[in-house]
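ugh ok fine here u go
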Amino acid sequence: MPAAAPTPKAVLHQRFGTNARYTVEEVREAVGGCPGLAPQTRSVYRCALELPGLSVATPGTFVRKKDAEQAAAQIALDKLGIQPIANIPSTPEEAWDELIARISGFFIDEKFLSSTHPLVGHLSVTLRRTGDLIGRIPLSAIAACDVKVNTLCKVIDPKAEFDPLLVLSFMYNAAKQSPGVLVSDTNFWIQSQKPYSPEAVDMALKRWSGTSDPVEVEAILVPHVLEDEPKIVRVNLRDNEHYMSYVAEKLTASDSSHVLVSRTIGKASSEIRLYFAAPNVHFVSDISKNVLACHGDGDINCQVNKRASYISGQTIYGDALLANIGYTRRDSELRTEDVNLCTYYRILLGKLPDGNCKMSRDAILAAELPSVYSRFSWKGLSPRDLLCSFCRNQRLSEPLFAVSRVSCGMITSAASSEERGAPAKSIENQHNDDVRTEEETPDSFKCEVKICSRKQEILVEYSAADTWSKESDAIQNSSLKVLIWFNNYFKQLNTKMDKLYLSECTDGFKIHPNIFLQEFAMCLSVYGNTGCNDSGTCSAVGPFSMDTPEKHLESTTTLTNIEGPDSGVFPSHGSLTCISYTASLVMKDKAKKYLLESHNEFEFEIGTGAVGNQLESCVTQLTVNQAACFVAELPPKDLILAAASEFSHDLSNVSRESCLLEFSVKVLQVTEPLEDRMEKALFSPPLSKQRVEFAVQHINELHATTLVDFGCGSGSLLDSLLEHPTTLEKLVGVDISRKGLTRAAKSLHQKLSKKSLVQATVPTAVLYHGSITDFDSRLYGFDIGTCLEVIEHMEEDQASLFGNVVLSSFRPTVLIVSTPNYEYNPILQRSAMPNKDDEADENAGPCKFRNHDHKFEWTRAQFQCWATDLAVKHNYSVEFCGVGGSGEEPGYASQIAVFRRMAHNVEAICLNKDQDQPYELLWEWPNASIPV
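structure:
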């Protein structure tokens, strides 16, 4: 495979080094607005570049900083007439000859000592020595400093990319043939054959200084035995000695020439590497017979360090030292930085599908990989960037995205919902009489994703029927699906290998098990063979062995130390919520408390799974400016150490049984869901109030005394009804969400308490927890039933099941059902806030659903067909109307069906109270207790 040309920045760095100075400016760019709402802006970047004798700046702006820098670098290259060319030999023989010449060039040309090459740092330190040691450096220092040498070794044998020992073999044999250098016959030293001139030595010593004062550097010893814990060691650098000599002492290597060095780990700007002692090997000085031989099968140094190998993507032998020490082109001093347990576990975390999501938000304990993609509220790296980063960290090829245009003739008017994660419905699930013509509906897009090994062997393929109105949304949503699949798979990796099942085809995924397991063999050996199935006690790989059942999404967190009055503004499903929080590890005896993580402003969307379940449960129980504490489930030890940058060493030996995790949370701001904001901005009064007024009108016309709200959520309808004069004597709400019912109970309790002070009688109110597709005899025969903007949150078959159950079993006198009118969406879409990342596109395809949680949105014809069939089947009449708009084309924004029970359909049914009461009574007024 031909080598890729270097990036514009890389080319300039090779030419100018630190003399290329980039200045990135962040600016706010207007992206339009919605009537009644504040103008929207987004952050974009422009870049200025200063070179010796040349200054350039980007004429436009860019969404990402790195794109602005690369654009400025490209402008400079164009002005300088420099063409980046990948100058890499194409055959092993050519690469071998160039490797010999390159190694020789480091030593025979004294001008090299005046360059900014990091190898000069190594040479300058060794030039301070005396006797035979002067100018002598380990061969592995060359491999650590020179990318070109490693590239040439990969051309000679692609396996060299993954084996530092093989690289050392090639270098040793090439050095044997390199003119002007001396190589030890017994060790892996290399030096110039001729003494350097005094002028060259002075030049090197002036340019590259040694360690003037003793320096102590923290590093991590990664044992090759998985049962042994990684631990902190301290490397003392002193006496202007070459630093690899002290690394050799920690590894008990015979000398520094026997210390091998991995590629850099983590950020490209970092010098974090793994150091390990070379096994006992002998090399054959012949390119055609490059052989590595290990002496003694029982030699511990010949044992592969699986953890270190997994981290680096290379084969590491024996115990390894993870350290941040080295010379760079950017600095003439020896660069050192402590590597602690936090660093180690963050490196491991970054290799997980959700790891970079957590770290990009700087919220390791709070953030989770969201379950849906929302262009309006997604925070941190995009799904595509996360997937690409995951593949790079796993040493896979870059993901392949194949976007195809789907003709409008293949989709229906409800065929796409790209706003925030809701996929389009396939044609089989839509009514045939509502297919739009090509002139009415633009095409949409779908995206196939392939994940391949470095050898371009396919591991995973994803191709679903979902379509999206924008190409970028197709890529982002498909990327998220693949990430979620990988995330679920990684949670199984501590399962015993004989129980680990890898399905070949499921939910649009096609897996190639043999190739997949072969590519992830090292990952499986690290995460799967820990001898532990409890993520809470498996500290060697901690959070990466999460064989735990799926958490119940409706669990309610118990809050303590609640502060602040109830403002009435609370987070609800789909709302964008900003909080401040701290997460602390507290000793049960209260002796110590360690602050692990904190955020002054952390924003996420409720209902997308963007934070842990307990944290979201806490937030949804608070209103704006309220604060509370709660004790969370203790995360695995590895996540704690990854978060605890300051206390990682102190916490490394803390027992899980002696501590607990405490969150302190305050709700700062709540932005309503986009759907609600549109309704308030575009309709007066808002659609929600219009729906309440519609219900009140029918209540009073019917003189209804009992009402049940199916899918009451947080009780907004029930709460609103208390503000209107009605004939109601009993209000009942049913919902599947405990969190919503908890909020409804608090709101109703507060309002009914006030009404009871001024009125002799107030309505009875009851809240039940249960599914509206299940019949409960306690709600049989109510005067009126409401189901407002609920059925679109269900699958279509469940919506039909609800219709059948409510009309055949609950049998209210009147049932009011409302749902969004999909045909009205183009009006809302043109008026809605524009996407913060994309420009407006008049040919963007089928308009989006109003909420990412909507499973479908029906046209008038589809809704009327559904309702008419139900009415005929269950002896009800039905009439259609709506709210929002004039009712003329394209109809009302919210369409409504009013079912009325026929006079000949009033006979009673036999009720079995023991078997027909599946609902759980959650709250009741009077004598109500509010659930916590």
